[in-house]
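Risk register update: the risk of archive-format incompatibility is retired. Evidence:
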Amino acid sequence: MHTAHETLRELEHVALELTSSIAPLRIGLAREAADLDAMFALRAGEIVERGWAPPASMPDGRDRDEYDDDAVHIAVFDTGKVVGACRLLLPSPHRLLPIERDFDLRLEPRGRVVQWSRLVLARAHRGDPQHRLAMACFAALWLQTTRHGFDACAGAIAKPMLELYRVIGMDFRVLAAPRMVDGELRYPALSSAATLRSALLVMRRLV
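Archived output:
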């Protein structure tokens, strides 16, 4: 029988397999100002493309909010160019997570749930029937979640994306009725530590 430490090491190995499966693309933390700027521009482009907000709402062509300064930013790189982005938001006693603010709820256990958000992919990198880039992003988010000492995540997710996530093993639990958030009807959803662990194993079989 595996100990908790051995199980975590095994899951880390699975997550690293998933992140490396997108080679020659690379996924990793984004810290450089130029990479962050490219991520914010990529986010803004998708928002406008999908009609979630007009270009005039982002006059500099960048999607940024008050959470970005403290977020853990993850980027997908194609020979140095940012072609995908997502972020991890850590709980703070000083302010609510966006999902808590937008849906008037409090995630439980208090202070132990992170939020995954702003997952975007450049148009040229969408449409993979195996969803390898999405799974690599989830694996990278999971790695950063655990490395920061957390094991459960939440997100504001549209219904089509909830269905896609279930296909690749991410079975979120819907917490409340949907609301218009960031220009789209979205559900507040929570994934437990156990669900995240099983999802990684499902994703490994799908790659």
